Amino acid sequence: MSVSFIRRIASPKKALTAAAVAAATAGMALSAAPAQAAPDAASSAQAAAHKMIPDSAQYNAFSKIVEHESGWNPTATNSSSGAYGLVQALPASKMASAGADWKTNPATQIKWGLDYMNSRYGSPTQAWNFWQANGWY
């Protein structure tokens, strides 16, 4: 058997092995990424927020906070602190004041988050200003 024939056989195997390693590595990187809300859940939550926050500047500020905190995932949980939901309430059970369905209903979480931002900061835009300066709110 000639060396060039062996190289022709070995090269595709090396290429396949490299491709398999690259695919596996990419797969591991994707699986390690934080969970995001399903597109329907995120868009449904965003639509609910739009209805509850008609002012575009206030909605945009609220949306930026939620995007940073949970990626619009209503079941997002911070494994180290236990913060939960769209607005990452801590403790999560505080959202029960907005409704018994706080664990599963994005509208309840939005109501609680909006009330929190208004009472603590004056508005979602002021909460966003604080978030930008501190990386939390």
Key phrases:
disordered N terminus; 0% strand; 2 domains; 137 residues; mainly alpha
Question: What do you see in this structure?
Answer:
This is Lytic transglycosylase domain-containing protein. Keywords: Signal. InterPro entries: Lysozyme-like_dom_sf, Transglycosylase_SLT_dom_1. Pfam families: SLT (PF01464). The chain is mostly helical and about 140 residues long. It folds into two domains: about 1-35; about 40-135, no CATH class. About 65% of the residues lie in helices and about 0% in strands. It contains five helices and no strands. It is globular. The N and C termini lie far apart (about 70 Å).
TL;DR of this structure?
The protein has 137 residues and is mainly alpha-helical.
Helical percent range?
Answer: 55-70%
Q: How many individual domains? A: 2
What's the total count of β strands?
Answer: 0
CA-based shape: globular
Percent strand: under 5%
Q: Enumerate the spans where pLDDT stays under 50 for 5 or more consecutive residues.
A: 3-34
Mean pLDDT: 82
Summarize the biggest pleated sheet: none
- Structural class comes to mainly alpha
Instruction: Specify the number of helices.
Output: 5
Radius of gyration: 23 Å
Distance between the termini: 70 Å
The SSE order reads HHHHH
Organism: Streptomyces pyxinicus
Domain Transglycosylase SLT: 59-128
Keywords: Signal
Protein name: Lytic transglycosylase domain-containing protein
